[in-house]
Prior knowledge:
The protein is α/β, with parallel strands linked by helices and 304 residues long. Helices cover 40% and strands 18% of the residues. The chain contains nine helices and ten strands. It has a five-stranded mixed beta sheet with strand order 5-2-7-1-8, sandwiched between helices. Strands 4-3-6 form a three-stranded mixed beta sheet. A hairpin with a 6-residue loop joins strand 3 and strand 4 (74-76). It is globular and about 50 Å long. Bound molecules: the ligand O=C(O)CCC(=O)/C=C/C=C(\O)C(=O)O and fe (ii) ion. Fe (ii) ion binds next to loops. Fe (ii) ion (FE2) binds at residues 3, 44, 46, 109, 169, 259, 262.
Amino acid sequence: MSHSPLLGLPGPPPSLLADVGTALAAAxxxxxxxxxxxxxxxxxxxxxxxxYRLMPPFCVGxxxxxxxxxxxxxxxxxxxxxxxxxxxxxxxxxDVDVAVSTGMDVDHGxxxxxxxxxxxxxxxxxxxxxxxxxxxxxxxxRRARLLGAAIGRYLAGLDRRVLVLGSGGLSHDPPVxxxxxxxxxxxxxxxxxxxxxxxxQARQSAVIEAAASFARGTxxxxxxxxxxxxxVLDVLDQGRLAELDGWTNDGITREGGNSAHExxxxxxxxxxxxxxxxxxxxxxxxxxxPELIAGFAVRTAFPR
Length: 304
Ligand SMILES: O=C(O)CCC(=O)/C=C/C=C(\O)C(=O)O
Ligand SMILES: [Fe+2]
C-alpha cells in the first residue's frame, strides 16, 4: 500500500479520505481474516531513521521504534529479534548484503500501514526492513526483487502465518530534502541532528501547503503519472517481476518522480510472495491523489 504524510494532516477532502479509507478497510478485513502471527514490512525512511552519514541500501531491524512524525503513533514495535537476525542471514546467504539495526527509528512509512491494518503499531510481531528509496544514489531496482525473493524463501520455511507488507507511493514527487539542500537541512539529513519541535512543525506546514498547491496545479512538483502507475501495477498484479530488472533508476525518476523509487518496497513484497509460487490479487485499489501528493494504491494478494 501507498502511504502519505497527508493522511494524518489537515487538507485532503473528506471524500478522498473516505475513498482511501474504504480501500484500507477492505485490506484490513482481508488481514483480519488471515490473522497473521508475523509481519514483515518493507518500508522506506524519510530522514527520520537513516542518514547520509551511513546510508545502507537495506537494513533489517531487530528492534525498532516509531518516531511519531506527521501525527503517527510513536513508540516501540514488537520485533522478534531472533527471527529478524535469521531473516538477515537468509539475505546474506542469497548474496544480498543487508545491514542490521538493533535500534531502528522508523517513520510514517513504516507506521502508517501498521496503524491502518492493526490499529496499533505493536499489535503484531513485525520485522521492519528498511529499503532506501529516497537518498540517492540508489541500488538498482533488481536488488529489491532479489532481497524480497531471499526473504520470501526464508519465510516460506517458517511454520508461521506471515503477512508481507510493502509501503510506498507509486508516481509522486513530494518535497523531500536532498544533498543540494541548505546547510541546516544537511545537518539533519547527513548527520541525523533531530529536528526541533519547531522544525517538525515547519515541515508539516510545508507538506500541507505543497499538497494544497499541487492539487490546485500551482506547485513546482512533478505531476503524478497515472499511466506509469498502471504499468507498475500491471506488472505486479500479473507477477511479471523479472521485467522490472530492466527498469533504470533514471527512467523511474523521469516517469514517476523522485519518490517513485518507493515502488521498490512493492517489488520486494511481491517478490517475497512470489517465492511461494504464483500469486493472485484479492483486493485492489488505485487513485491518483494530488491532495496526498501520491499515486495511491492498495493491493492484497495470496498464493494461488
Ligand atoms: O524532511 C522532510 O521534510 C521530509 C518530507 C517528508 O517526509 C515527505 C514524505 C512524503 C512521503 O512519505 C511520500 O509521499 O511518500
Ligand atoms: Fe514516502
